[in-house]
Amino acid sequence: MYCELANKLVVEAKRTEQLNSRNNARTTLPVHNDELVRNVLKEVTQLKKNLEFFKEQQDIMSTEGISVDSNVMKCQYFVNLLCLERNKRCLLGYQKLRSDMLDSMAWENNGMDVMGSNLGEENSNLTHQEQEYLKKYSELITEMKSGELTDIDLSGSLIPPKEVFIDVRVLKDAGEIQTEYGVFNLIKDSQFFVRQSDVERLIQQGFLQKI
Amino acid sequence: MSLPGRLQETFSPEEVQFIVENQKIKIFPRITTSKKRGGDSSRNNNNNNTDNEDMSRWRMLTMDGRALENMIVMKSTEVTLWLALLLKQQSKCNIIIPEWLTIKGLDLMLQYEKRNIERFSALPWDWLVVSEILFKQAADDFNDPIYELRNRIQDLKEIRQMKVLQGLKNLNESHMQLDNLGLLEINELRPFIVRVMDKLRQIHASGIDTTETENQDYDDDNDIGMGTMISSDRDASSSIPPNAMSF
Amino acid sequence: MDVDIEDILAELNTDSTAVDYSGNNNPLSDIANTNVSTLYNSSYPDDKNIPTNKNPPGVRSNTKISAEQDYSSLMTLWRNERCSPELLPYPHHLMSRMLMRIQDQLERLEIISMDFMGQNSNTIDNSNKPINNNNMLPLLCMEAELERIKFIIRSYIRCRLSKIDKFSLYLRQIEQDSNLKSLDDLLSKDEMIYYQRHSEMILKLFNDTTLKHLPPELQAINDTTGTISMIDEPDWNKFVFIKVIGPNDKMLNSDPLLKKDSNNKFFYEVIIPELEEDVELFIDSIYVMRYNVIKNLLLDGKVILI
C-alpha cells in the first residue's frame, strides 16, 4: 500500500523523539535510515508516473470521445496525489525531527565542533549532509555566544542556579587550586566553602564531595 | 532544539522555585551593615586601602541594595527570599516565618477549604513552594513544631487536589476561573488542562463547521442542529455565577 | 570624600545609546547623571509600581527605570514568553540596560575579588574559609545574584530561539507580507542573524536530502496550496493561564477599558468570537483563556501569563 513505507519513517522518528524526551540525558540519534528514505523516494517517482499516466489516459479518452466514468478517474488521480503529498510530508518530518535533535546536540556541546570530540562514534549515525549541517549550526551557536550576549553563556545550564556557593569536603589530595576567592590547598578531609562552578570539575573527578 | 521539549510545555519544578525565590520575605539580621551606627565612615580612613569601603558596599541589580546596606542586628527588614536563604546559610540572619505558615494560620485556611467546597482559600500563590523551602532551610526559625505544620500543609494540598479533581468535569472549550490556585498547583495541572481544553475547542470548532455546511446543504429551517446543541451545552457550563470556582 | 571611582567608571560606561531616553525630559546636561541613577538606584522600592511594560520602541515611559523594576519586568517577560504560543516582541531597551549592568557588575566584581586576593594572600595558610568573613558577604550575594540574572536571560533567549526555529517559515511570510520593519521590532539584531542563517542552513539540508529528489512541482518548502499548509502558524487560540493585573500605573479609574460591576469590582470585558461569548476578567483573578482573546491585554501588560 502506498505511504506504508513513509509511515515507517514517521514511527521511527516518533520513537527517537520519545527516547530523547524521557530524561535529561544527552540527545542521541539512531542511524539515518538511508534505505527507507530511498524506497520512499522511489515510491514518489512511481506515484508521479501514475499521475502522468492518469492524466494521459484522461486526455486520450476525452479526445477520442469515449465516455468515461470521470469520477473514478478523478478519484484515482486524487488519491495518488494525496499519497505523493503525504510522502513528502513524512520525508520532511523525518528529516526535521533529526535536525531538531542535531540542534539539541549542538547546544549540549556548547557549540563546539562535535566532529572532533568524543561523540565521534555517534556521528557515524549521521549522513554526510547532517554532519555538514551540525558543523554549521555549531558555528552559529558559537557566534551567538560571543555577540552582545557574551556575558550570559548562552549554552550554559538551563537549570536555575540554586547554590552558587557550597561546602565541600576533600576526598583526595588535589594540591592547590586558584579561584577568584583565593588559593585553596586541597588536603584530604579538609572542608571548604567555595563557588560551585569553580569546583564542578573536581567534584566530577571525585576529588571533592558536596556536603 | 534550543530549548528542551520538556521545558516548552510548562516550567520545571526548579524553575517554579526560582520564580518564587524572587519574592520578598522578612528577616532579623544577625549582623549590622549600617555605617551610620557603630563607627562612622571616617573609620575607613585608618585603613590603608581606600577601596575597602567600596568593597563592602552592596550594589544589587535585582533589588534595592539599601535594605542590605542598612541592616541592623535584630531589626527586621525585608529582602528577597533567595538572599534571605543565602544569609541564613551563612548564619547571618533569622527568617521571620510568615503569619499564614503557623498552626493558627493554616487551621484558618483549612477551615475555609472545608466550608467552601467550590473555592480555594486565599493562601499566597507560592504557599507550597515557600513552606517546603522554609521547612528545609529555616527549620530552627519556626515556633510551631514542623511536623504539625507539615501535616496541615499536606491536608491542604489534599483537600485542594480533591477540589481540582472534582472541577475537572467542568473543563470546557470556553474558559475557566481559578482564583487562589497556587503557582505549583497551576504548573502541575497546566499540561493536562491545556491539552483537554484545546481538544474540546477543536471538537467544538469542527462541530460548528459541519453544522454550517449541513445547514447550507439542507433546509435552513433546521435550526436545532448540532451547533445549537453544543452551544447550549456550553452555556450551561459557563453559567456558573461569576466569581464562583468554575473549576 | 564620597567620590567613588566605580561610579565614575559607571558613568563613563553608561554614556552610550543603550539607555532608554524616551522618558527623559531633562536637558542634555542631566543625562549622564540620570543614567547612573537609572542604572543603580533602586529608587522605586514599591513592588506594586513595577511596570510589566515590555517597553516597545516608541512607547514613552515617564518614570525613572530602576534596576529592580527592570529585573521584575524581565521576569514577567520570561514567563510570558515561555507560556505564549507566539513569539513576543523583543524588549530592545530593557535588554540593553540589563546587559550593560551585567557587564558593569562583572568588572566591578573582578576588581573587588582581586583586591581580596591581595589582602588575603598572607593569611591564606591559616584560613581555609576565606569567604567566610563579613566583608566578603556583599560579594557573595552579588555573585549569586549575577548567576540568577544570567540564568533568566539565557533561558529567555533560548526560549525565543526555539520559537524562531519553530516559526521560521511563518516569520518569512511576515517578512514578505509586510515591510521588514516589523521583524526588526520582533527580533534582536543577534536573533535576526540567527533566524536568517539557521533557516538558510536548514533549507539547504532539506533540499539536499529530500526536496531536490521530488518532482519539481513539489519542491517548495512553504507550499500552502496542498491539502495541508506547510507553514506552521502559532496556535492563536491555545489556552493559556493568565492573571489579570490591570494598568501599569494601577490607576484603575483612568483605564478606559476597565469596567465596574455592581460590587465595584473592576474587570476587562473580552469576547470569544468563536463562541460569541462575553467574559469578564476581574483584576487579580486567574483564568484559563484562549490566547487570542487576551493577546492585546498581554501586550499592554494588563494581564500576565502564569
What do these coordinates show?
The complex is a heterotrimer of chains A (211), B (247) and C (306). By secondary structure, chain A is mainly alpha-helical. Chain A is built from six helices and five strands, in the order αααααββββαβ. The relative contact order of chain A is 0.09. The relative contact order of chain B is 0.11. Residues 37-55 and 212-247 of chain B have low confidence and may be disordered. With 247 residues, chain B is mainly alpha-helical. Chain C is mainly α. Chain C folds into two domains: 66-117 and 135-233, Methane Monooxygenase Hydroxylase, Chain G, domain 1, CATH 1.20.58.1030; 235-305, Ribosomal Protein L9, domain 1, CATH 3.40.5. Chain C contains nine helices and six strands. Chain C has helices at residues 5-14, 31-40, 67-83, 92-120, 137-166, 168-177, 181-186, 189-209, 291-299; strands at 239-244, 258-260, 266-272, 277-282, 286-290, 303-305. In chain C, 38% of the residues are buried. At the A-B interface, helix 1 and helix 3 of A face helix 1 and helix 2 of B. Chain A: Residues 162-210 form the DNA replication complex GINS protein PSF1 C-terminal domain.
Radius of gyration of chain A: 28 Å
Q: Average pLDDT of chain A, to the nearest integer? A: 83
Biggest interface between chains: B-C, 61 and 69 residues
Low-confidence stretches of chain A are: none
Q: Give start-end ranges of low-pLDDT stretches of chain C.
A: 1-62, 122-132
> What share of residues of chain A is helical?
55-70%
What CATH architecture of the largest domain in chain A would you give? Up-down Bundle
Query: What structural class do you assign from the helix and strand content of chain A?
Result: mainly alpha
Strand tally of chain C is 6
Enumerate the strands of the largest sheet of chain A in spatial order, edge to edge or round the barrel. Answer: 4-1-5
Mean pLDDT of chain C: 77
Domain DNA replication complex GINS protein PSF2 N-terminal (chain B): 69-96
Domain GINS subunit (chain B): 100-204
Family (chain B): Belongs to the GINS2/PSF2 family.
Keywords (chain B): DNA replication, Nucleus
